[in-house]
Specification:
The chain has a 5-stranded parallel β-sheet with strand order 4-5-6-3-7, sandwiched between helices. Strands 1-2 form a two-stranded antiparallel sheet. Strand 5, helix 7 and strand 6 form a beta-alpha-beta unit. 45% of the residues lie in helices and 12% in strands. It has 284 residues and is of the alpha/beta class. It has 10 helices and 7 strands.
Length: 284
């Protein structure tokens, strides 16, 4: 015959003082918690619960200061991971070149002839409703400087990263052409360029120059000018050459959207080539 279970003995509790404090340990550091009375605890109907349960209801643990610090560190680390994932998503979704995250303002080699113009670039803030129009010969660092603004937008965005889109202009029009064949007649590429919070246009002037391209470009720039949407542009062409190639009304809108900066530096890609050659010659 099985022994009968021990009968539950009701506990008469009038306050937390009638109960011992729990001896639970902190999962972060392993120390036994210090406890304080739980002001929400009521001794009413306490006789229906075991003493160990009542004890945890009557007393609540005080978080250790060192553990609060660890929790903040973990929260910051988790936020940093989420931030990195969001940045990667923005870069992948918006057509940025793979090396854009290495293009920072601090890593840009300042040419003495451009020092005055670069001071304007440094004084720009992400809250400004305009961008820059970088002119200069191939390899002068135009795309590098334009890429540095991506970093500055990321650093300034505390909550939501702005919707940024990067296009090499010839590829922009290639994609717009492909969108013409869509059965739903949607134009996602063109609409993205119209409405992005920030638009980066690389190599303006290298497109084929067809009339429909000029008209689409005008529509993009006109819309962004009217809505004060920051726009950044690079081109190998001088202002007069842009005017001759694409019409004065485009040049006017570019000047309304961007501050023109002319880079007179040497071709930096030749420096990269020379460095690679030195590295190869120095290998055993």
């Amino acid at each position: 015959m099985q022994p009968m279970a021990k009968a539950f003995t009701p506990i008469l509790v009038s306050s937390a003082d009638d109960l011992e404090t729990p001896q639970d340990r902190c999962p972060e550091c392993g120390e036994v918690f210090q406890y304080e009375k739980n002001p929400e605890f009521s001794a009413k109907d306490s006789s229906a619960l075991p003493r160990t349960v009542l004890s945890r209801l009557a007393w609540r643990p005080i978080t250790h200061l060192n553990c609060e610090s660890r929790m903040r560190e973990r929260a910051h680390a988790a936020a940093a991971i989420r931030r990195k994932q969001e940045i990667n998503h923005v870069l992948k979704r918006s057509g940025f070149p793979g090396n854009v995250m290495s293009k920072t303002l601090s890593s840009f080699q300042v040419d003495p002839d451009c020092a005055r113009e670069l001071e304007l670039v440094k004084r720009w803030r992400p809250t400004d409703r305009y961008g820059f129009w970088f002119q200069g010969p191939p390899g002068s660092g135009k795309s590098h400087l334009m890429g540095s603004f991506v970093h500055r937008y990321f650093e300034a965005s505390t909550e939501k990263v702005p919707h940024m889109v990067w296009w090499s202009v010839p590829f922009l029009f290639d994609q717009i052409t492909k969108d013409f064949a869509r059965e739903d007649r949607a134009e996602p590429t063109f609409q993205d360029a119209l409405n992005a919070d920030v638009l980066f246009l690389d190599d303006l002037g290298t497109q084929q120059g067809k009339p429909w391209e000029t008209e689409r470009l005008f529509q993009i720039l006109d819309r962004r000018l009217n809505w004060e949407l920051p726009t950044f542009v690079t081109t190998n062409l001088a202002t007069g050459e842009v005017k001759n190639l694409m019409h004065e009304r485009l040049t006017s809108r570019l000047l309304g959207l961007c501050i023109p900066v002319t880079l007179k530096a040497r071709d930096r890609r030749r420096d990269v080539l020379a460095e690679r050659l030195r590295d190869l010659h120095g290998r055993v």
